[in-house]
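A favour, since you know our C-alpha cells better than I do. Just paste the record in under my message, thanks.
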Amino acid sequence: MAYPQSNGQAEVGNREILRVLRAQLDHVGGSWVDELWALCTTLKEGTGMTPFHMVYGGEAVAPVEVGVESDRVQHYNEGNTEQRHMEFDLLDETRAKEVVRLMAYRQRMKQNYNRRVIPRSF
C-alpha cells in the first residue's frame, strides 16, 4: 500500500499548532472543549473580531443560547438566509480589511516595544 509523501513543512507546522494547544489546554483538565470555545469566540484586539467570525463570517451561537432560547435564536428567521449569503460574499473583503488592521496593530506594537526596550544613544 502506498502513502503519499507528506510535506515536511506542513508536519512541522501541525506539530507546532499541537504544541501550543497542549500548552494552553493542559491546565484546564477535562474542560478543554469550553476553553477552545472561549478561544474561538473571544474578540481579538489585533483584528477587532473573533477567530470564528474571521472564518465563518458571523458570530457563533453558544449551545446554551439554543437550549435557553436567547433573543438571537428567537428572532432568527429563514429570511436571514439571503442576508447570510450576502455576508459570505463580503467575507473576503472583510478579511482583507482585517489584514490591514492587523498590520497597523503590529506596527503600533513594534513601535511601542522599540520605544521601551531599545536604548537611545546620547
User: Anything to note?
Assistant: The chain has seven helices and no strands. The mean pLDDT is 77. Residues 91-117 form the longest helix (27 residues). The helical segments are 8-25, 32-41, 51-56, 63-68, 71-74, 80-89, 91-117.
